[in-house]
Amino acid sequence: VIFSTISVDHAVEAFEVNAIGYLVKPYSEADIVKVFARASIRRERTNDMVLIQSGSDRKIFRNDDVLTIESDRHYTKISVKDGTVSRFHLGFSEILPLFKGFIEISRGLAVNMSCIDMIKGSAVTMCDGKSYNIARGKKEDVVKRYTEFVLKHN
Questions:
Q1: 127: helix, coil or strand?
Q2: What is the three-state SS of 67-109?
Q3: Could you tell me the pTM of the whole model?
Q4: Where are the alpha helices (DSSP H) in 17-53?
Q5: Rounded to an integer, what distance in angstroms lies between the CA atom of residue 124 and that of residue 126?
């Protein structure tokens, strides 16, 4: 959010809601360029970050660090490269769309395509060495989407 106003009266409140900028009229073109440049940098920095909030639990994940997202009854587990697993009282279908580059390889299990080492037969091997089975009905789609992902990112 960037505020544009004739008064500085609400500047403190603006930054309490994480405003990127607060322009007071009259402002110059240089002021506008500066604020939008700051907005662009902030977007790039947060673009690969995902905040998961469940009750009083809050955790920020770097998209590239997450290996798997897995349904666990009424919870969802998020496994990261350093071996830690976080569990949230949120549904799999609520959490999965927040992350980029993931593919559901079986019901309730999604993997980060950038962390796949190989797909062999009906198994996906991740960069941490763990293997996961691809559901029979999903194999063709998983292979196709992963191939497109690799071609796009190389």
A1: coil
A2: EEEEEECCEEEEEECCCCEEEECCCHHHHHHHCCCEEEEECCE
A3: 0.69
A4: 29-47
A5: 6
CA dihedral 125, 60, 74, 101 (to 10 degrees): -40
* SS3 assignment, position 61: strand
Predicted confidence (pLDDT) per residue in 5-15, tens digit? 787 777 677 66
Structure tokens that stand for 31 in this block: 């002021």
Q: How far apart are CA 56 and CA 149, in angstroms?
A: 36
At 72 the pLDDT is: 94
Q: What is the average per-residue pLDDT within 106-117? A: 96
User: In a 10 Å sphere around its CB, with 0-12 CB exposed, 13-18 middle and 19+ buried, how is residue 29 labelled?
Assistant: exposed
Residue-level length of the chain: 154
Convert the pLDDT of each residue in 23-72 to its tens digit: 788 878 877 877 766 665 444 445 588 888 877 778 889 999 999 999 99
